Amino acid sequence: MMDSITQKAGIIAVAAFGVVLVSSAGYSSVSAQGLPEGFKKGDLAAEPSAEMIEAGKRVYFTKCVWCHGVDGAGDGPGADRLWPRPRNFNQGTFKIRHTASGELPLFDAKKPIPGQNDLFETVTHGLPGSAMPPWEGILSEEQRQQVLSFITTQLVKDRKFTDKQSETQTILQLADLKPKPATDESKKRGGELIVEKKCVECHGMEGRGDGNAFNLKDDWGFSIQPANWHKCWNFRGSRQDPYNVSNIFRTFSTGVNGTPMPSFADNTTVDERWDIANFVNSLCERDPLGNPLPIDPLTDKPKINFVIPSDLVEGEIPADIEHEAWQKAPKRYVAMGGQITHKPRNFVNRIDDIWVRSLYNDKYIVYLLEWDDRTKSVAEGKLPWAPTQVNIDVKEQDPKTGEEGSIAAKQNNYTVYNDAIAIETAVKWKELPAPIKPRYLFGTNDQFPVDIVKWEADGSLRAFKGTGWDKDFEERDNYEESMKLLKGEWKNGRWYVMIQRPVGNKKDQDYDEDTFFEVGQYIPTVFFAWDGHNGDAGRKMAVSAFFYTFMNPPVPQETYIYPVVIAVGVVLLEGWVLTRRANKKRGKTL
Amino acid sequence: MKALMSLGALIGVAGLLLLGGMVFDVVPSTTIRLVEGYMPIQMLLEVACYVIGFTGLSYIMGAMGMAIPRFWQGIGFWVFLMLYLKFRVYPPIPFSVRAMYGTVGLVTVFMWVSANEEDWNKFKQPIMNVLDAQTGMKRLLRYAYLVAIPILVGGFSFNAMMPKSEEPIELRTVHPAPPASTKVHGKTYTLQTSQNPYRVNPEGKYDQEFSNANIVEQGMGRLMKPNANPWDDKNQGYLKYVREGGEIFFQNCHFCHGDNLNGRGLHAFAFNPIPANFTDPGTIAQLQETFIFWRVAKGGIGLPNEGFPWASVMPPWEQHLTVDEIWKVVLFEYWHTGYYPRTWD
Question: For chain B, which domains are there?
Fold first, then answer.
C-alpha cells in the first residue's frame, strides 16, 4: 500500500515536472532563472534540535495521535469517520504552502519567519471546513514548533526536509507582493481569466465547486471536491482571515499538493493572479451593502442571528427571486450540522448552511431557501420506503480504523437518494410556556407534535406531523393541497426552493396538526436538509438549531402617538423644574 | 504620592490606548485575550486597573491645573463601564444584562459622588449652574437642553415601541440536579455510590490516587506526564483504559466537543446550546464522575426541563455505546483535561 502511494507520488511528481517544463516554454511570466514570477529560491531550514523533537513527541501523543495515528499515516482512531481524512504525513505532501508545486512546505524550527512558516501557520489556525482545529491558545508557540519538529523529522518518511540532494525551496514572496486593489476592472478581468484558465471546469460556472465533482481524487485515491468560492470561511488556507485576498493568491500561486489543484504560477503573471484572486474573493458571501459578513471568532463561521424575519407584502407573494420584495427581504444564515444524536448519525455533513428569506401576506407565508449542493440528486426508481417512514434502513459508518470502507473511501459511492429540505415548526407552540418547545428532532410526543413541510428533489411537497424522533410521520389530511411549490430549481451548484404554506388561524385550521403563524410572535422553526449523493435519507441528514420565524407586524399607530405624548410630558416636567428652581431662588416655596 | 499617582496615570493611559486599539482594530483584537473560565477574574482585574488608572489620571490633571469636574468624572466613568461591557466582553452580553450592570454601576457612581456633602455639592453644581443660567453661554446651554431632552426621550421611546425582532433570551441551567439513580442497559446505578470501574491501578484496584498521578499536567498545552503515555503498549490499568476511552471519544464525541475537548468540534458551530467545554473549570471539574456518566448515558433528551431537552443535540449515548465504553470515555475526559473528578466527601 505504502509503496504504491510512493510510486504514484513519484509519477505525479515527474508528470508535474513535465508540465512545468512544457508550460514554462512559451510564457513570459517565468523569470530569467526559470522561476515563476513572484518566487525566489530559498534555503532549506536547519534540522530541529533533538530536544525539540523529543518534546514534540509528547505533544503529538497527547493531542494529534488520535486522528493522525501512531505512525502519522492519518489513520488514528478518529480517521474513518472523517472526510476529508486526517493528513497522512508519511509522504510529506502538504496542502497549504508558500513553496512551488510539489515542494515541501516551509518549516523552520529555529529561525521562523512570521507568516511564512507554513506548517506552523496550519497548526496555529487550523484548516477550516475540516476537523483540524486552530491550536493557537491551546498549545504555546514553542509547543507548536516542537510538535512540528517531531512530525517533519519522524513522521514524514518518504522525504527529508534537510536533504539538499532531493529537496528545493522555491518560495512565493508574498510579503513583498502588494495586493492589487479590487477594482471592478480587476474583478472583471479575473472573471474572464477563470474561464480562460479553466478554473470553472472544476469549481463550476458560479464557483460553487460543482464542476467535475465526482471524478476528482487525491493522491491517496480518496474522493475530493473543489472549493466553493462562496464560502471563503471554509477555505483550508484561509488562516482565520477568510476575506483576505492574499490567501487566495497564495493558494492559486502554489497549488494544493496531493490534490488535483495545480499551481498556476507558471502560466499566469502576478498581475493576472491578483485579478483572479480579487474575483474569487468578491464571490464570497457578503451583506447587502457588500461588506464582509461578521465572522464569529469562536467558530470561524459567519455570526448567526436566530430570528428569521418575514416581511408583509400586499397581494400575491412573488415567485420571482429578482422581485423587489425578495431583494429587500433580510437574508439569514442558517448554520447546519450533521444529525449525530440518533442512528444513523451523519458524521460527514455536506450541507453546512442554508440562506433563508421569508415573506407573508394575509393568507400565506413563503420561505425562500437557498443552499449550495455540488450535485443535483434525484433518486432513480422508487425508493424502498414510504415518505412517512422515519426508521429506514440506512447504515452509519463503523468506527473501526483502516481505509477499507471508511467514509473518505465511500464518498461519492453511495446510493443516490433525493436531495430534500424540510421546515419544522412547533404545533401548539403557544401552549408551551416559553422557552419550552417540542423536541428539535421530529417533536416530543403526541401531546407536543411538530408540523413538518418537506420538499424533495423529485418535485414532491408533503406535509407531515412528527411525534418523536423514532416515530414514523403521520400524513396530514388535505394540507398538501393548500401548499404550493413556487420554485424548485438547481442551478450551478445551488438549490433555490420556494415553499408557500397557509399561515392558518385558530378558527378554521386544524390546530392540533398545523402551526398557526401568528404575526409578531416568535415561532420555533428548525430546518433539515438532505444531500442525495451523500446517501442522506431518513435521520441521516443535516439539522439546524432552533430558529424563530418572526412575521414583522405592521407598525401600530400608538408607535407614533405615545412618543409625542411622552415628549410633551417631558416639556411640562422641564417647565415645572425651572419654575420651582426660580421660585426657590427668589426665596419662595411652593 | 505623586510618583504613585503618575504610575497610575500611566497604567490608565496605556490601558485605554490598548482597549481603544483593540476595539477599533488598530492592534489585533486578540492582543489581550479573555481566557474562558478565567474571564470573570480577568475582567475584575482589568476594571481595577482602569480605576487605578483613572484615579492617577485625574490626580495628575488636577496637579497640572486641568482638573476634571466631579460631574464629568462620574458620568465619564459610568459611560466607560457601559462601553467596556459592550465592546470588550466576548461573547457579547445581552442588553438586559448590561442594563442590570449599568444600573448597579450608576448606583455606585452615585454613592461615590454623594459620599459627603461637599462632594455632592460639587457634583450637582454644574446642573444648578445650567438651571440658573446666569451667563449667556449657560442660557444658550439651557435652551439647548430644553429642546434636546424631549426630542431624545421621544426618539428613544419611539425606537423602543417600534416592533422589533430581537432574539428572545433563554437562560438554561447547565448543570441540572441529577437523579438519585439512573438505569442504563438494564442495570440501575446509584449516583452516590457508583464508581468508575476503570479508574484502577495496574493491579486492578480502584485507585484514585494512582489515576490522579497520571493525568495530563495543568498549564499551557495540558500535556501528558512524560512517563505516562497512554499509547505505550506496556500500559496496564488506568492508562490502557484512557487510551481506549480516547479512541471512543475520537470516533464519537469530538464532532461536537472538539479535538481539544473545548466544545469547538466540527459541527459545533451549528448548534445552540453550544457543546460543553470540558477544559473550562466550570464543567467536569466541578462534577462527580457519576454525574457525567448520567449525562452521557441519557443525553440531551434525558435532561429535566431547565436543561432544555428539546434543543440539546447531545445523544443519549446508551443508544450508541455500552456501559463500559461510557465509563472509559468519562475516564478519558478527565485524563485529557487534567482535572480530578469531584468526590462525594
Answer: 2-115 (no CATH), 181-337 (1.10.760.10)
A490-531 residue pLDDT tens: 999 999 999 999 998 767 666 778 899 999 899 999 999 999
CA distance A574 to chain B (A): 7
CB count in 10 Å sphere of residue B263: 21
- Residue predicted with more confidence, A157 or B6: A157
Under a CB-based contact definition with an 8 Å cutoff, are residues B56 and B7 in contact? yes
Q: How far is B160 from chain A (nearest CA, A)?
A: 9
- Rounded to the nearest integer, the mean pLDDT of chain A is 90
Contact yes or no for A499/A507 (Cβ under 8 A):
no
Three-state secondary structure call for residue B154: helix
Give B159-214 pLDDT, tens digit per residue.
888 877 888 888 888 889 999 999 999 999 999 999 999 999 999 999 999 999 99
**Chain B residue with minimum CA distance to A59:** B223
Complex ipTM value: 0.89
Q: What is the mean pLDDT of residues B240-246?
A: 96
Indicate if the alpha-carbon torsion angle A371, A374, A376, A377 is positive or negative.
negative
Task: Tell which residue, B139, B258, B278, B79, has the closest CA to residue A131.
Answer: B258
Task: pLDDT band for A280, please (50, 70, 90 cuts).
Answer: very high
* Residue A75 pLDDT exceeds 90: yes
The answer to whether residue A298 neighbours chain B at the CB level (below 8 Å) is yes
CB-CB: which of A63, A520, A545 is closest to B260?
Answer: A63
Q: How far apart are CA B5 and CA B51, in angstroms?
A: 12
Distance CA(B211)–CA(B225), nearest Å, equals: 12
* From A439-443, A576-580, B2-6, the region with the lowest mean pLDDT: B2-6
- Parallel, antiparallel, or unpaired for β B181-184 and B187-190? antiparallel
Residue A499: its H or E element: strand A494-502
Separation CA B103–CA A490 (nearest Å): 53
Chain B neighbors of A76, CB-CB under 8 A: 250
CB A317 within 8 A of CB A343: no
CA angle B184, B186, B187 (to 5 degrees): 70
Q: How far is A503 from chain B (nearest CA, A)?
A: 18
Alpha-helical regions (H) of B64-207: 70-87, 95-113, 117-132, 136-161
Residue A58, all three cell numbers:
509528547
Please count the other Cβ atoms lying within 10 Å of the Cβ belonging to residue B13.
14
* Calpha distance A537→B90 (Å, rounded): 38
**Do A335 and B270 make contact, defined as CB atoms within 8 angstroms?**
yes
Q: Name the residue among B149, B157, B167 with its Cβ closest to that of A307.
A: B167
Beta strand A461-466 pairing with A450-456:
antiparallel
